[in-house]
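Thread title: Can someone regenerate the structure for this chain?

I was given the following input by a collaborator and told the matching structure tokens would be attached. They weren't. Posting the sequence so someone can regenerate them.
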Amino acid sequence: DLAFLRGDGTQFTPKGMKNWAANSFAGTATLDIPHITSDFGTMITYLVTANVKVTLASGAWFMSPRSFVFIKTLRNPTTGQFAFPEMQGANPMLLGYKVAYSSQIPTNLGTGAQSEVYFANMPDCVIGESANLVLDVSTEASYVDAGGNTVSAYANDQTVIRVIEEHDFAVRYAASVAIQTGVNY
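Best answer:
Regenerated them for you:
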């Protein structure tokens, strides 16, 4: 999750949604239903205005577990009804779009306990995987064990096997991802 959501594209890691997104804005600090709904609408509007063909089947939200639980449990103070009833049940939806959460989206950003919410058109988000595996086998190699000790394969009559599989992530159109920063919930 971390690389595909927030990766910066350095140190042999993919560039994630955060760093592909053409649209980013600071959300409202007011934690009420109208302001939160407006922020969600802004994210959808960014994609639609850029002519991204986002549909109810192709759009998806990504947020931290904290944000997910806040939205899921948010109630109208007047009626006591859930503000987003689609969030209830086994397949949560938000404004008709699928919702996913990941603990890889931090909740300690900015000046306090802020987070981010992502909205993306998933057919434009592509994970590439190399068809080739690099397989290395050595009886002379060494490795560092769980205790931090360097272990010699030769001295211990061991064989060290290393398998490398390459992955990458890209977004076909940067306008296919919008990010709300400064999320206080």
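The mean pLDDT is 92.
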